[in-house]
Design brief:
The complex is a heterodimer of chains A (110) and B (116). Chain A has 110 residues and is mainly beta. Chain A has no helices and eleven strands. In chain A, strands 2, 4, 5, 9, 10 and 11 form a six-stranded mixed sheet that branches. Chain B starts with a strand and ends with a strand. Chain B is an all-beta fold and 116 residues long. In chain B, 0% of the residues lie in helices and 53% in strands. In chain B, the strands form two sheets. In chain B, strands 2, 4, 5, 6, 9, 10 and 11 form a seven-stranded mixed sheet that branches. A four-stranded antiparallel sheet of chain B has the order 1-3-8-7, with no helix packed on it. Chain B is globular and about 40 Å long. In chain B, β4 and β5 form a beta hairpin. Classes of the chains: A mainly beta (110), B mainly beta (116). At the A-B interface, β4 and β5 of A face β5, β9 and β10 of B.
Chain lengths: 110, 116
C-alpha cells in the first residue's frame, strides 16, 4: 500500500531555517499536505500543494515538490520557539483518506 | 479557515461504560468524516471513514461493534466507544472533508479518553 516516510526528529536554533523532508510512494497523489500538531492538540493544516506544482510559498513556509523523486519538503524560515511541534506530511488521491507519515518532531532551541 | 470541533475534549470513565464523542464541522458541510486514534508519540491511525447517511467503513482490525459511528448529518458525526476498557484509552481525533473545492481534510482538536 501507499507509504509516506519522514525523519522523526529535527533540532534547529531560533532564527535558523528548518527543512522537514518527506517521501511518498503513490504516483497518483493529487494533493500533498503539511499539518502541524502541538502537544495535546489536533492537527492544524499549514499548507498544501497540488501535485502539478513544484513550489509554493506562504509567508515563512516554502513547500517544494519533486514529483519525479516523490519527495516533498517544508522549509520554515526564521524558525521561532512557537514552531516547536510535530509536523506531518500527508498525501491523498481523489476521495481516499489521507495517508500520513509518522511525523517529524521539530525542537527549536532558543 | 474551516473549523472542526470535538466534544468532549477530555473524558474519564469507568471500565464497562460507553462514551460518545461528537465531531462537528462548524462552517462547512462535510460529506465524509474520518475518525483517527493516536497513541503517545505515534502517528494517526485511521479507524473508520463515515459518509453522511450511510454505514461507516472500518479499517482492518477495528471492531465496528466496539466503535459505533453515526454520521447523521452533513455537519455531525459521533463515535461511541462501547463497554470501554483501559486499553481503549487514547487520543481520538476526527476529521471532516469539505464537500466542495479541493476536499481538504480539517481536523478537530481531539478527545483524550482515559478508561479506569
Amino acid at each position: 500500500g501507499e507509504d509516506v516516510e519522514q525523519s522523526l526528529f529535527l533540532s534547529v536554533r531560533e532564527g535558523d531555517s528548518s527543512v522537514i523532508n518527506c517521501t511518498y510512494t503513490d504516483s497518483s497523489s493529487t494533493y500533498l499536505y503539511w499539518y502541524k500538531q502541538e502537544p495535546g492538540a489536533g492537527l492544524q493544516l499549514l499548507t498544501y500543494i497540488f501535485s502539478n506544482m513544484d513550489m509554493k510559498q506562504d509567508q515563512r513556509l516554502t513547500v517544494l515538490l519533486n514529483k519525479k523523486d516523490k519527495h516533498l519538503s517544508l522549509r520554515i524560515a526564521d524558525t521561532q520557539t512557537g514552531d516547536s511541534a510535530i509536523y506531518f506530511c500527508a498525501d491523498v488521491e481523489g476521495n481516499t483518506p489521507l495517508v500520513f507519515g509518522k511525523g517529524t518532531r521539530l525542537s527549536v532551541i532558543a | 479557515g474551516a473549523v472542526v470541533s470535538q466534544h468532549p475534549s477530555r473524558v474519564i470513565c469507568k471500565s464497562g461504560t460507553s462514551v460518545k464523542i461528537e465531531c462537528r464541522s462548524l462552517d462547512f458541510q462535510a460529506t465524509t468524516m474520518f475518525w483517527y486514534r493516536q497513541f503517545p508519540k505515534k502517528s494517526l491511525m485511521l479507524m473508520a471513514t463515515s459518509n453522511e447517511g450511510s454505514k461507516a467503513t472500518y479499517e482492518q482490525g477495528v471492531e465496528k461493534d466496539k466503535f459505533l459511528i453515526n454520521h447523521a448529518s452533513l455537519t455531525l458525526s459521533t463515535l461511541t466507544v462501547t463497554s470501554a476498557h483501559p486499553e481503549d484509552s487514547s487520543f481520538y481525533i476526527c476529521s471532516a472533508r469539505e464537500q466542495s473545492g479541493r476536499g481538504t481534510q480539517y481536523f478537530g482538536p481531539g478527545t483524550r479518553l482515559l478508561v479506569l
